[in-house]
Amino acid sequence: MKELTSKEKLFCTYYSLGRCAREAAVKSGYIFPEKSAAKLLKRRDIAEEIAHLDKQREATQKDIAIGYQRLAFGCISDAVCLLFSDEVSREEIEKMDLFNISEIKRKKGGDIEIKFFDRLKALEKLADLGSVQKGTEESTLFSAIEKGAKALRDNSYE
After folding, report:
1. Single pTM value for the model
2. Overall domain count for the chain
3. Cα–Cα distances in Å, from 17 out to 39, 56, 110?
4. Which domain holds residue 89?
């Protein structure tokens, strides 16, 4: 099987992202987009490339979902320890899980102000991401809540 041209690869990328064959053909530079798109979509090598791109994008969405789950359900105990500690070494900070922190400020009096990412926004993003992936917001949201609750239970026994 021959190697795809750069124009064909571009078509596959645009089609994988938007699922509109005509638009993908136009963006890829084909002169007769409807005719070209129809021909391209019939080819096995094109279908395989699109499937490969879909799979890569799915993994990326899974990584995004994991990040939002950490923001929505992550433990803040390390941040609280940081807040109430007088002196913390660099080594101790490197061992802490500070993923949920959006901002840390040290004020003039030596006080520390810690701002966290918004958990509700993270939940909303999880719901949006789930509706794109599975077509239903509720099942993914509940699944995310269950996973987060399980993670919190598991961390509480350590």
Report:
1. 0.49
2. 2
3. 19, 11, 49
4. 58-158
